[in-house]
Every structure is written in structure tokens, then in C-alpha cells.
Fold this protein.
Amino acid sequence: MNKVRGIFIGRMQPVHNGHMQIIDKILEEVDEIIIGIGSAQLSHSLKNPFTAGERVVMLNQALAERGVDPSRYYIIPMQDINFNALWVSHVKMLTPPFSIIYSGNQLVKQLFSEEGFEVRQPPLYDRLRLSGTEVRTRMIEGGNWEELVPNATINLINEINGDERIKNLSIREISEI
Ligand code: NAD
């Protein structure tokens, strides 16, 4: 029997508890999940502080912590391309075959539905708090970002001094203001 595969693509800047709940939900519905680490080429900016490799570690360890069977997921970093109309083909080139895309991102949903894929919207999990923007803002402001992310994200960010990185990136030179 063919496996039913679903794909979920996110920048995961950083991996947070909302991403993990979405992954749990998808795994209830499909045999295998492909997790795309989007905008893999971006790092060291306020919106995209972490490298693709750092995000792979966060996710890999977070899935291990949750006891997810490694034979049920693929983690694939994917760079952006300049052509939205070609992006779905680019994603297909990088991934095992799949039939369902899970996304709450309007552009992602539009592009995949135009190519004939089944699009499913994951439920919202405490969306205002569980967002990359909220985690990054708390990191800059010295708030409790740790409560929003899995232990694996905390460990990796501590290992690379990630909160110092993001605080340093937030300091603007007078010439930039
Ligand atoms: P993200 O990490 O912000 O979110 C990932 C997904 O999780 C989204 O579908 C979002 O709706 C969902 N989500 C996050 N928190 C949630 C919560 N608490 N509850 C429910 N759902 C939640 O990533 P993103 O920015 O949506 O990632 C899309 C990626 O696709 C980006 O890297 C983007 O650049 C890429 N992309 C590239 C092209 C191109 O290269 N031309 C085109 C379209 C999209």
C-alpha cells in the first residue's frame, strides 16, 4: 500500500510549541510527514536569526523528546526562490512524493491549491502567543520565551548563545536609524 504523505513548511524561527502541536496533529492523519525548513538561506537577521542547520537540530531533538518515530518524518531545508509560480515544483524536486499540504500561510495555500494539491489548514494553537514573532520579541526584551518552545529549542539556543545573537542584532547603529 502506498504511504499517505503530508508536507508542512515553516521558517521555524525558532521551532515553538505551536509547530510541535501541528506536527502531532498531522501525524494523526497521514503515514509520514515531510517537514520543510523554509527560507533555509536566511539567518542572522531579527526575523530570521537561526541558520537552517540550527533549526534542523531544534526540530530533530524536539521530535526525539516527544518520542516521535523517526521513520515517520523527513526534515528537509529548502531555500526560497524568486519565482512564486515555480515554487511548488522546486519543493517537489526536494521532497518525497506527497499529496496533502498543511499550512495556515495564505500564499503557501494558494500556490499549492493552484497545482492541484489537497490543502488542509491546521487548527490554531494559542496563535497569538505561539508564534515565532512572539518568541523573538521576548528574547530581545528579556521576557520568558522559554515557556513557548520545546526544551530542544532552549538547549540549542543556549548552546549557540542565541539570545545574545538576537539581542546584538537588535542594536542599531546611529547611521541605521
Ligand atoms: P512559520 O514558521 O511562521 O509558520 C509555519 C506554519 O505554521 C504556518 O502555516 C503557520 O500558519 C503555522 N503556525 C505557526 N504557529 C501556529 C500556531 N500557534 N497555531 C497554528 N498554526 C501555526 O513559517 P511561514 O513563514 O509560514 O513559512 C512559509 C515558508 O515558505 C517561508 O520560508 C517562505 O519563505 C516559504 N515560501 C517560499 C516561496 C518562494 O520561495 N517563492 C513562496 C511561498 C512560501
